[in-house]
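Honest question from a wet-lab person: if I give you the sequences of every part of a complex, can you actually get the arrangement of the whole thing, not just the pieces? Trying it with mine:
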Amino acid sequence: MNLARQYLRAVWNGRTLLIYTFLVSFLLFVISPFFMIGLKSVGKNWFGRMWFPPTLTTDWFRWAVEVTRIPEILKNTLVIAVLAVTISTLIGIPSGWAFGRRRVPGKELLMALILLPRMIPPITFALGVARIFYRLDLVDTHLGVALAHVAICAPYAILVLSSTFEGLDERVLEAASVCGANVVRTFFHVTLPMVLPGILSSIIFTFTTSYNEFTLTLMTYGPHTITLPVRTYLAVGEGYWEVSSAMSVILIIPSLLILFGIQRQVAPEKLVGGFKGV
Amino acid sequence: MKRVNLTTLILLLPGFAAFFGLFFYPMLVTVLQSLRPEGQSTGWTLENYVNFLTQPGARQVITLTFVLAVATTLLSILLSVPLALVLREKIRGHRIFRLAILVPITVPGLVGALGLLLFWGSRGWVNLFLVQFIPFIKEPLRFNYTIHGLILFYLWHYFSYTCVTTLATLEGLDRSIEEAASVAGANRWQVLRHIVLPLITPGILAGSVITFMLSFGAFSIPLVTGGNYRPLAVEIYTQIGVPIPPRWSLASAMAVVMAVLQIAFLSVYMRVLRRPIA
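Yes, you can. This is the full assembly:
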């Protein structure tokens, strides 16, 4: 009994240690895969039971750039992402304004409808998208792939922007007009600075969604519109793990930059889709 | 009810144009295709559904998809609650762990899948650790292309949604309620069990519903890491990718079944969510 109590006290005193063990194992669980990718992409002759590759090389990166034409694929990915972001933002601003600031009958139901593409597995409507785009000759064009991405980017833009516009304080706008600012001045000096962070976060999120999108790209891509995720998938299928790792490293850099950027700017729960407190 | 303003309608137009053009119409095409005889674009039949649902494999595929999704959701809750409780205390270095939660959602799924295959593979760090430091493990354990491995990989990809929402709800709690309970004589366990957990349950559920939806519809991860275990989404893709000519009608029927299952499960989940917590 005494022993048990002593043991419990020791555990209690070692609580901080326990907590950190838990946290560090969690951290390792999440980020170790990236260390292994990083090492695999620069390692040579890494077979058998070794913690680290015996020799380092840049061959795989050179291979990725020269043979799999990474620069061209990166260009495709970015062009598609920029198109998808532009279209989604152009859709999101008016519709988000209507949802956020105007009387819309059945608002909640309509919003749920708009968000439906994010709730249903993309593969289900991707089949239809592929068939329609084949008929319209949109398959294997940048615009076509981008439009397919808009299907899931636009709901996100509308959601984020409507909550941004909703948060706009009417009284500030009134104060501006009381102080003698005309409509144009109010817009550029008051409204725009206030909604800009929201628009920016909508752009970041839709960009990430499009940049990472795989299912819808796989159904609409062609030889001229291979994106980085699709190329990585193909490389994994071909069995070149080292080259796939090198590609993954290239693919991951923008994501990490965005991650560090948003950590400071926006609340993380926005990132998970704004379902907080459904 | 007042008539809807014309301006509101015009503002909503782009959002609904995107919804109908890029989601509703493709979904309709999928549904129609599922009712066409294989390889034809006219005529009506139900045989695709009959063929799929009477196949001996169909029940296995659906069960596998559900098992993966449910197990992932439960594990994500089991991981998120302690993690959120620990991170709430703002201990030293908590920012790094918070950032780690966001890594799986910002990084392309395929990169994560590749890294996980390397990390948990027979020559990965996990097995190196197990073989070298755990005395009774002599041979590397198999994680890749197994059910438990898949659940682990799903957990890595989708736990963030549960975790972020749980953490946000927990941090929104009024600390004075807990203080009141402990002043009233409740010990830490009782406070956790009877005060904190019931209060954060809505947050946990709201987050885990996203985890569930995504793991039910998961495509890229099981495509790369599933091996012979093919959940619904991968099975659908296999039907249009492997056989020649592709079986579009069968794939569409499967997609419709998948969407219906997803919606049915979501509505049950939402009902549970809305119920006041006893």
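Two things worth pointing out. Residues 122 and 140 of chain B are 6 Å apart (CA to CA). The mean pLDDT of chain B is 87.
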